[in-house]
Please model this.
Amino acid sequence: MPKKRQKELFQPAKGTFDILPEDEWYWDKIYKAASKAADVYGFGKIETPIFENTNLFLRSVGETTDIAEKQMYSFKTRGGDALTLRPEGTAPISRAFISNGLFELPQPLKLWYWGPFFRHESPQHLRYREFHQFGFEIFGDRDSVYDALIIQIFANILKELGWADFVVEINSVGCQTCRPDFRRLLLNYYRSRQRLLCKDCKRRFVSNPLRLLDCKEEKCAELKSRAPQIIDHLCSACRPHFKSTLEFLDDLEIPYMLNPHLVRGLDYYSKTVFEFVSTSKEDKMAIASGGRYDNLVELLGGKSAPAVGGAAGIERLIASLKEIGVQPEPKENPKVFVVQLGSLAKRKSLSLIEDLRKAEITFAESLGRDSIKAQLKIADRLKAQLALIIGQKESLDNTIIIREMDSGNQETVTRAKIIDRLKKRLS
Model:
């Protein structure tokens, strides 16, 4: 006998997840906090396509970064176009800044965004292949006050959400003037220690030495603790820029800590880089991060436009809010529950529900049920104040019974007067 075909049970694709109604409160809360901050600080919202030209990311984030080498979801269209699902937000927004002529607008130009991003990571706790971020970017000004402003915006959003146990780890990665000399110093230090490096760092030694400082492997962490620090080798432009950024943070009383090994995993950064990390957990996973990228717009073919920005991981932020006990606000109970019996009553109920919606009276129903008793049980469980009952007689008479759920008292009201009567009783 042929084997019975097993029923296929589909699951979310690896590294993705469903956002269920019970978690939507957190997403909505974070969006409102980010949107409010955007309005207060004068940021306009921008949305870029989910996929972009692959070369946009190779040129911006760097061909030798982990993102470009291992994590990008790239594909070719039937027409031969090389496209990539966006792995981060700054490069697409910089492209939009150029291609839409936004450099012609008064500068600095402030933009913010919200949406999904994609990286082919090994799925692990809070590292997904589809993840979500919101971010803030400022184009057209190189003053360090904007480095501090971006950090201030994220600090205020996190505090408003209830997450105050953070510190900003901060560093300067220099610029095109001072970075080449530091690169040589770093190579000299690691040259005699290459055999001690992990596999990835042996490759980074050749392709991208600055990222040796970003490795989390234990044996590499020991080596980088004694490596030269770029902060000691900043040029005459980067040093005062970093100093004034820290002074602004002091004035704002934002807690920060110098991290000389913080370099970030993207090649377009220059000068300031930062990460928001928890002070209450050993896990130093960044909740929000960013920095300055003065050369990116020009690198992508636009006019010179210094810029600074940052982004926050929404999934990580939600996990942190849950850990510190931030809970959804209790849902408001429906004021009324619509109870019906019979096909004509069901039709009348639909128009009644529409009138309740227009009058902004919260309601619930169970129109698929035929038993009045069963519907009243549901109304009781939902703690509705009033039940609106429409049976066969009420349908023909064009009336509705208003029943108090607590006392059981009832009155019959004409259909035309039901909304006015409900407003008086619910006031």
